[in-house]
């Protein structure tokens, strides 16, 4: 078999510290061999130098369409909670060209930080229409060389009693959006919003990804209805909920009970630390709740969990360099997870668990899978999270997509 590339001296996540490094051979965009012994080949080779080589990272929940708008839409002043209204006010000014340009810059930043797969949520409210769908579908085609991008259409500002939002949701699915989502917390009838999303999922045979259970108390959990509908439709493994800040307010026994319910139904949870920290508990002026759900605790109950970026440089989160490892490190700080096995599990929430959420059966460093790989300035997954490791090189289907020079200290 003719090889195109060999990554040499790679250390795989989960390998024992004293385990030998491996060579990873690539042919035709796929992993052709993984061997501890040196692979003999004249193909182009890159020496990982004993560093961690992981599968490409996965953004499971991001908003490309409304990223990078802080220049026209400033964050809230003080502790007010009008993020959605601030964004809604500028959405009529979005155009296909504008959305494409901002989304492109965010997408490229994600690629440069190791992402090779992404699910973006796309707003289709009447004040923006389908221009973001058009822009992001074109972006997905243009950047397939670097990242696989799927679109989840949803109504951010309410669906019940908003005929044009419903029509736009249907139009987005007809145009080829891969998923349907929702934000029932902003709707006048949360249950009706959720039920309509599931009806559309069944009609178009697509997965569901909802913004859910954001609030100052753990009461009225909408995820219970989501679990019921997931089981009734047989959609287990095809439903995810993002945020879940209310879950952070549950006592351990109640969180365990919820986790077992989620696991039984096959509903995944995506925790979004940056946004959840920034917008949570603004009604409090002291002893402020952090609002970040403990995904490690949910994983222990059998729930599939991921971590993701969510918003970048907009009123919901006026920060962001698109580094998922930085998000993971932030999350670990907040939920106070610092042991190596805990941090290794956190890294799984950027990789293997996220792939499971996206239902990618061909993901990971295994013979036959696409060669979507990242070399890190670290020797283990736990170290990568602990030190916010820098990705030194990335590959999509065996083709190098970026490189970054390792820092050099020039001593006198």
Question: What secondary-structure arrangement, pairings included, does this model have?
Answer:
Layout: E1 5-12, E2 22-27, E3 30-35, E4 44-47, E5 52-55, E6 57-62, H1 83-90, H2 96-112, E7 115-123, H3 131-142, E8 148-154, H4 163-174, E9 179-182, H5 190-204, E10 207-212, H6 223-233, E11 239-243, H7 252-265, E12 267-271, H8 273-279, H9 295-300, E13 305-307, H10 324-335, H11 340-348, H12 352-357, E14 373-376, H13 381-386, E15 391-396, E16 399-403
Parallel strand pairs: 1-4, 1-5, 6-7, 7-8, 8-9, 9-10, 10-11, 11-12, 12-13
Antiparallel strand pairs: 1-2, 2-3, 5-14, 14-15, 15-16
Helix pairs in contact: 2-3, 5-6
Written overview of the protein:
There is one protein chain. 33% of the residues lie in helices and 21% in strands. It is an alpha/beta fold and 412 residues long. α7 (252-265) links the parallel β11 and β12. α2 (96-112) packs across α3 (131-142) and α5 runs parallel beside α6 (223-233). The mean pLDDT is 96.
Keywords:
412 residues, alpha/beta, TIM Barrel, 2 domains, eight-stranded mixed beta sheet, eight-stranded parallel beta sheet, 13 helices
């Amino acid at each position: 078999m003719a090889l195109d590339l060999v990554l040499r001296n790679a250390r795989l996540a989960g390998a024992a510290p004293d385990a030998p490094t491996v060579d990873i051979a690539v042919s035709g965009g796929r992993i052709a061999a993984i061997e501890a012994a040196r692979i003999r080949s004249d193909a182009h080779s890159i020496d990982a130098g004993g560093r961690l080589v992981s599968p490409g990272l996965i953004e499971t929940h991001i908003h490309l369409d409304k990223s990078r708008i802080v220049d026209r839409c400033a964050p809230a002043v003080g502790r007010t909670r009008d993020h959605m209204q601030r964004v809604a006010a500028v959405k009529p000014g979005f155009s296909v060209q504008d959305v494409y340009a901002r989304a492109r810059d965010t997408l490229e930043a994600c690629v440069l930080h190791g992402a090779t797969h992404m699910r973006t949520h796309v707003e289709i409210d009447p004040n923006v229409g389908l221009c973001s769908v058009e822009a992001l579908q074109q972006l997905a085609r243009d950047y397939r060389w670097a990242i696989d991008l799927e679109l989840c259409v949803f109504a951010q500002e309410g669906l019940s009693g908003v005929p044009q939002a419903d029509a736009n949701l249907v139009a987005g699915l007809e145009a080829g959006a891969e998923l349907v989502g929702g934000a029932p917390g902003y709707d006048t009838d949360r249950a009706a919003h959720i039920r309509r999303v599931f009806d559309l999922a069944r009609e178009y045979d697509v997965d569901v990804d909802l913004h859910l259970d954001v609030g100052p108390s753990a009461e009225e959990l909408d995820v219970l209805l989501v679990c019921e509908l997931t089981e009734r439709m047989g959609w287990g493994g095809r439903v995810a909920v993002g945020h879940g800040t209310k879950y952070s307010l549950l006592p351990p026994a109640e969180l365990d009970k919820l986790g077992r319910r989620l696991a039984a139904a096959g509903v995944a949870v995506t925790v979004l630390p940056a946004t959840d920290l920034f917008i949570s508990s603004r009604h409090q002026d002291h002893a402020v709740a952090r609002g970040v759900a403990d995904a490690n605790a949910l994983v222990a109950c059998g729930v599939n969990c991921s971590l993701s970026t969510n918003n970048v440089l907009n009123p919901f989160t006026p920060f962001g360099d698109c580094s998922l490892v930085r998000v993971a490190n932030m999350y670990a700080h907040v939920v106070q997870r610092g042991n190596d096995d805990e941090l290794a599990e956190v890294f799984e929430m950027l990789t293997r668990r996220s792939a499971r959420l996206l239902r990618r059966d061909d993901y990971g460093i295994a013979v036959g899978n696409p060669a979507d790989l990242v070399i890190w300035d670290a020797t283990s997954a736990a170290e990568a999270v602990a030190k916010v490791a820098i990705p030194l090189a990335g590959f999509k289907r065996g083709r190098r997509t970026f490189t970054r020079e390792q820092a050099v200290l020039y001593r006198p």
